[in-house]
């Protein structure tokens, strides 16, 4: 009698179902977290340098760190756009053009030439050197424009982007208001500085002389006492007689001869 051969049950391996969309989103999130960590490190280095004494700070280092942060934030913005596209799906995120449709417009590329940050003229402003200040101001303007364009480029914007006139007007008004405000402050500061510089300072002129034209702030000695001129013009006015002079140090008593 033949024995019946028993067969082992076949183990059924279930296929692993991979949610490709969830995997793509997780990968994008990991990359965003990694770049955000780099941004925090660079901002911490920037703040640490800013907390140093002004003579120990490195402007070049701060500018370099901020430029790197702008670049990294541009990458983060691009990853957020990519994540949004993955959540919507390819068909919704990037709709295919209809047959016979006009080709997509090609945007211009940024044509930026590096502009070095100028230095403010370290000299008093006069009518003779006004040209120097005007030219330096123009270089400052070009430098700020370059920095703004560089920031837009880093943020993945293109020069053909359309801006609403309302926004343009607001930005222009804010810039004009800031310039006007600073101009008024400069006028007030220069006026105050001129008043301070015009104040009289003590200047010793020696023994009083009737023929000398003394000014406010001059000091002289007369008959053993020190006198301060109180007028803008005091010629021929003798100290101690009438207006024009104010006693500063009164003559002391004559000393007695020492006895042997």
Structure description:
With 260 residues, this protein is an alpha+beta fold. The protein has four domains: 19-95; 111-161, no CATH class; 162-199; 203-249, Seminal Fluid Protein  PDC-109 (Domain B). Helix content is 48%, strand content 8%. It has five helices and four strands; from the N terminus they run αααααββββ. It has a four-stranded mixed β-sheet with strand order 1-2-3-4, with no helix packed on it. A hairpin with a 2-residue loop joins β2 and β3 (225-229). It is elongated. It starts with 19 loop residues before the first helix and ends in an 11-residue tail after the last strand. The relative contact order is 0.05. The mean pLDDT is 82.
Category from helices, strands and their pairing: alpha+beta
Number of helices: 5
Low-confidence stretches: none
Number of strands: 4
User: Between the first and last Cα atoms, what is the distance in angstroms?
Assistant: 161 Å
- What does the overall shape look like? elongated
* Radius of gyration over all CA atoms, rounded: 40 Å
Q: In what order do the strands lie side by side in the largest sheet?
A: 1-2-3-4
Topology:
Elements: H1 20-50, H2 59-88, H3 90-93, H4 130-154, H5 165-198, E1 203-207, E2 218-222, E3 225-229, E4 245-249
Parallel strand pairs: 1-2
Antiparallel strand pairs: 2-3, 3-4
Helix pairs in contact: 1-2
Structural features:
single chain; 4-stranded mixed β-sheet; 5 helices; elongated; alpha+beta; 260 residues; 4 domains
In short:
The chain has 260 residues and is α+β, with helices and mostly antiparallel strands. It has 5 helices and 4 strands. The protein folds into 4 domains: 19-95; 111-161, no CATH class; 162-199; 203-249, Ribbon (Seminal Fluid Protein  PDC-109 (Domain B)), CATH 2.10.10.
